[in-house]
Design brief:
Blueprint lengths: L8 H17 L1 H4 L6 H15 L17 E3 L4 E2 L2 E2 L4 E3 L10 E5 L9 H13 L4 E5 L3 E6 L13 E6 L6 H11 L1 H5 L2 H8 L18 H23 L5 H23 L16 H16 L1 H4 L15 H12 L12 H11 L2 E5 L4 E5 L1 H6 L7 H16 L4 H4 L4 E3 L6 H20 L9 E4 L2 E4 L1 H11 E5 L2 H15 L5 H9 L12 E3 L19 H4 L4 H4 L1 H5 L3 E6 L5 E2 L6 H10 L7 E2 H12 E12 L9 H10 E8 L12 E8 L8 E6 L13 E6 H6 L14 H9 L2 E2 L5 E4 L1 E2 L3 H4 E2 L7 E5 L4 E2 L2 E2 L4 E4 L7 E2 L3 H4 L4 E5 L7 E4 L4 E2 L3 E5 L3 H11 L2 H10 L12 H5 L2 E2 L7 H26 L3 H25 L4 H8 L2
Parallel strand pairs: 5-6, 11-14, 11-16, 14-15, 16-19, 28-35
Antiparallel strand pairs: 1-4, 2-3, 4-5, 6-7, 7-8, 9-10, 12-13, 17-18, 19-21, 20-21, 22-23, 24-37, 25-36, 26-32, 27-31, 28-31, 29-30, 33-34, 33-36
Helix pairs in contact: 1-3, 8-9, 8-12, 8-13, 9-19, 13-19, 15-17, 17-19, 25-26, 31-34, 34-35
């Protein structure tokens, strides 16, 4: 295993060896039934992990909200325990455990299927690949990657040790380099799990990967429950249509999941498991929900027009009992107290992508049309959500009092399952707890309470924060229902049985009404579309137009939201998928609605209109926003309306299965343009948990520089060190397309019809492809193309291009332009661009400039798309290359021109000879000559553009 830095192995080994000696000296007493688990934890297990570097007793970290080892008091419910004894975390992430430890007393036989199953459940539900089961006498490392089953529990052992093995240096090293604090900080567990064999066995869940993570398994099972319930409801109630079935099934599943959460959190007694063997299970379930409604209020238990109607006939009892058994039976793998709310959110996000479609004879669950076209639902990774919320809401509340925060409003106007709102709520809860811990005198009566030695927010205060601060909108009613459910789960995350009991004594509702906070409506289209006669024949029920002033009157009266965050939908609006009346409305209301209208463009613009002065917006959007020609007006509008705080571009795709590259953008609404001078710009490589702290490139750019760039692009590579040079290159040069003709090569379509290995007819001409083009060298053509323009052809088919006696050719694929020259009539394919002038000498001159380091520098700064795969030259970017305009009647200009042409001609000759070299000595000599000529051409180009020594350093260090 990889060795962690800052070794304390020897100290750890000596400390553990002493524990071994102590245990051995009194082994009989420790193995006695009278020696309890609490004793072995205190005497040995705590000390074992302290030796491994963990702050078990909180000596280093006194803040109870940031304990790296969270120790649970044992809570036994029936035959099961609700939480693992130890959960290990690493700062700053105290949400996602690195691993769990389940402790037992030494008198018990540890190799027990129930104990293994219990430990696996903690790890699997907590999303950790491995967990530990130990009584100090024995130590088992258990694989938690598969869905847990009692039957196969014992087969999930990875490694085991007897306590005497701890004194064996070689065996202890294995434990140390996997579980010591330093090792875990170096990702030892993730590396170890990656090297494990793929898990074998286990109950196969259709459509789930072999590793069977809890979110994928639970989603697959929810899909099965949805289909079973939909068919059962339809069979008993033939009159129900698809929309009614979708809503009825959703509400049923929401109730089941919410109740199971309450049960595993010990807020309510276990009832769902009791339905498994009962007659009339559905009626008992409905009756139980009716009993919970006065206590919890909220959306979940309020009477539903379908499933709570007297006319509704229950589904087949066996179908419903099977669902209850899957969620709450003895062998159910789910511990809803352990599954992170964010994971439940990701499950529901994908769950929302499907609806029930019903005909008279058939019921089918299928993807929504927009989801099917998009290739699926893409849930925003937690680390992206956390970063955006921290950089927007986190910055705004910093240093504020709870009273000040109570007047603030934070929204997601395309909230989906509510992942961003859950994170906002979590941030607010943690901030308030930290504030009251540091300023106990500021807490009003009833704001906080003491629990297990730490100050926590009361249920009433958690309710207040939720109602005061959190707002959301979605056009999908099911999404708003799921968002409310998710927020309710978050509200109750730290609530105890006693909290619920106290509220019931006071006859107060545990869940607040969120109907005024989370609204179903169209964020982009106001009610003006149905008022007046401008847009007749609009289907209001489908369109769901909404005015924010009507939906959130108090918020909008005070200037709008303090922050808007989210991941808006990415979808092109076009006549074939959108009614013309809607497209026309968009064009009248959004500067972003140009030739190509993308929904995320509109959401960006809408968000900024909803934010009050000095408010923030944070979005993850396609990185095309940075330089897409159709977004130029939107970029200008946003810069006139706001200040760009930061742009973080992902080299790798955030959404693995989606063909879209993204960036995270943070805006601040600022109407004082003269104050917007410098904005922090940040780009990252592989996005990860330390997204914000380990940028690959971090610098400052002037927003004013963006305004001066062609197309008003948001070029985050233009920074303080290179902006002046870029501006000078642009101002003192002409774009390449102003000095030469640029075209794209032939696009034929059916290759077999147009390409041949020999000249079959007079219309066949020699042709080269992109791979044939190298710097200053073009491979001889090996194919011929039928020069007969097809009806559906793309690219350029002009004879004057392909039959020209000479032309510069530039390869499309590559991080920058790679150019050669053709000195006879040869056609080129569509992955080649041609650059032409009537003057061959001028083409030689252009070839030297295009292949120079200066051109490469300009390219990497101005046209870098930050993608790690398939970087490409575009005709748009090639056209903008700055070319120094020369007056050849002026001696100085002619001398510089001729010098570059001469060097290029020598380079072409050297490359030609290099291609024919037969000996290693000749190859080496010619390679060195080419390297020398390259340096000379670069120097000549520097002189041509008048670069200073400092500017040359900037160019060569890009």
């Amino acid at each position: 295993m990889d060795e962690p830095s800052g070794q304390s192995l020897e100290q750890a080994y000596e400390a553990v060896k002493k524990l071994v000696e102590d245990f051995k000296a009194h082994e009989r007493d420790y193995l006695s039934p009278n020696y309890q688990e609490s004793h072995v934890r205190q005497d040995f297990i705590d000390k074992f992990f302290i030796a491994l570097g963990w702050d078990v007793t909180h000596e280093r970290q006194k803040n109870p909200h940031e304990y790296e080892v969270q120790i649970e008091n044992r809570v036994q419910i029936g035959s099961t325990q609700q939480r693992a004894d130890y959960a290990f975390f690493l700062a700053p992430n105290f949400r996602d455990p690195k691993f769990f430890v389940e402790a037992k007393k030494p008198a018990r036989e540890l190799e027990n299927p129930d104990f293994f199953y219990q430990t696996m459940r903690y790890g699997w539900n907590g999303n950790t690949p491995i967990a530990i089961l130990t009584d100090f006498e024995e130590f088992y490392v258990i694989d938690c990657r598969l869905k847990p089953t009692i039957k196969e529990a014992l087969s999930r052992r990875i490694q085991s040790f007897h306590y005497t093995d701890y004194a064996d240096k070689e065996k202890f090293v294995w434990i140390y380099y996997l579980f010591s604090r330093e090792a875990v900080a170096g990702n030892s567990i993730e590396k170890f799990a990656a090297k494990l064999e793929s898990p074998k066995g286990g109950k196969v869940v259709r459509g789930v990967s072999k590793s069977q993570p809890v979110d994928d398994v639970f989603l697959a099972e929810l899909d099965g429950y949805r289909e079973s319930l939909a068919k059962g409801f339809k069979k008993s109630n033939q009159e129900l249509d698809g929309e009614e079935l979708t809503e009825a099934v959703q509400r049923t599943i929401d109730r089941l999941v919410f109740i199971r959460f309450l049960e595993d959190k010990l807020i309510e007694e276990k009832e769902i498991a009791n339905l498994i063997d009962r007659q009339m299970a559905w009626e008992l379930f409905v009756g139980y929900c009716r009993k919970l409604e006065p206590k919890y209020n909220g959306l979940i238990f309020k009477p539903h027009p379908v499933i709570d109607s007297e006319k509704f006939k229950p589904p087949d009892e066996e179908v419903f009992r099977e669902i209850c058994e899957g969620l709450a039976g003895r062998e159910s793998p789910y511990n809803f107290a352990q599954i992170p709310i964010s994971i439940l959110g990701s499950i529901y996000e994908r769950f929302l992508g499907k609806v029930v479609h019903a005909t008279d004879k058939r019921v089918k669950v299928e993807e929504k049309p927009e989801v099917r076209k998009a290739g699926g639902v893409y849930y925003t990774p937690d680390y992206i959500v956390r970063y955006i919320v921290k950089e927007t809401v986190g910055k705004l509340i910093e240093g504020k009092t709870p009273d000040e925060i109570s007047k603030m409003a934070f929204a997601d106007i395309a909230c989906g399952s509510g992942s961003f709102l859950i994170e906002v709520y979590d941030l607010l809860l943690k901030y308030h707890e930290r504030y009251y811990t540091e300023h106990p005198e500021k807490a009003k009566k009833g704001d906080t309470e003491q629990r297990e030695g730490r100050k926590v927010l009361s249920l009433k205060k958690r309710q207040e924060i939720l109602v005061n601060n959190i707002y959301g909108v979605d056009i999908d009613y099911q999404a708003t229902e799921v968002t409310q459910l998710s927020l309710y789960l978050k509200l109750l995350e730290d609530v105890t049985t006693n909290d619920a009991y106290q509220f019931s004594l006071l006859k107060e509702k545990i869940l607040p009404n969120l109907s005024n906070n989370i609204v179903c409506g169209n964020s982009l289209i106001g009610r003006d579309i149905v008022e007046g006669n401008l847009f007749p024949d609009v289907d209001e029920s489908k369109l769901k137009p909404m005015n924010f002033e009507d939906a959130f009157p108090e918020v909008m009266h005070h200037g709008g939201f303090d922050a808007v965050v989210g991941n808006p939908p990415y979808r092109m609006i076009q006549p074939h998928n959108t009614e013309e009346v809607i497209i026309e409305y968009m064009k009248q209301h959004y500067v972003a609605a140009e030739f190509k209208i993308d929904l995320f463009h509109l959401f960006l613009q809408k968000a900024m209109t909803l934010i009050r002065e000095k408010g923030n917006a944070g979005y993850i959007v396609p990185s095309s926003i940075l330089n897409n020609v159709y977004a130029e007006d939107l970029r200008k509008w946003l810069m006139s309306y706001s200040s760009i705080v930061s742009i973080a571009v992902a080299k790798e795709k955030v959404f693995a299965n989606a063909e879209v590259h993204t960036c995270v953008m943070i805006f601040s609404k600022d109407s004082k343009a003269d104050e917007r001078l410098v904005n922090r710009i940040q780009t990252t490589g592989d996005l990860s948990e330390d997204f914000a702290s380990t940028p690959v490139f971090s610098s400052y750019s002037r927003q004013a520089d963006f305004l001066s760039l062609p197309g008003t692009v948001w070029n985050i590579s233009v920074n303080e060190s290179n902006a002046a040079l870029i501006r000078r290159l642009i101002s003192q040069s002409k774009e390449l397309n102003a000095t030469a003709k640029i075209n794209r090569g032939l696009i034929t379509g059916d290759r077999s019809k147009y390409f041949a290995k020999k000249k079959e007819t007079k219309k066949h001409i020699a042709i080269i492809a992109g791979t044939d083009v190298q710097r200053y060298f073009v491979k001889p053509p090996g194919e011929f193309v039928l020069f007969e323009r097809p009806e559906t052809a793309g690219g350029c088919w002009d004879e004057e291009v392909h039959l020209a006696p000479h032309k510069v050719v530039v390869r499309q694929i590559g991080a920058g332009p790679t150019a050669g020259i053709l000195l006879r009539p040869i056609a080129v394919t569509g992955n080649i661009f041609t650059v032409m002038s009537e003057n061959l000498q001028y083409e030689m001159f252009l070839l030297g400039v295009i292949n120079s380091k200066l051109a490469d520098f300009y390219w990497r700064v101005m046209f870098n798309d930050f993608k790690s795969s398939f970087p490409q030259v575009t005709i748009f970017s090639l056209s903008q290359l700055p070319i120094r305009v020369l007056d050849l009647t002026v001696d100085k200009d002619k001398t510089r021109h001729d010098h570059i042409v001469n060097l290029v001609e020598r380079m072409l000759a050297a490359k030609e000879e290099l291609g024919k070299a037969k000996t290693e000595a000749e190859t080496t000599r010619l390679e060195r000559e080419c390297e020398s000529l390259d340096r000379q051409i670069d120097q000549a180009v520097y002189e041509l553009y008048g670069l200073t020594e400092e500017e040359i350093r900037v160019v060569e260090n890009v």
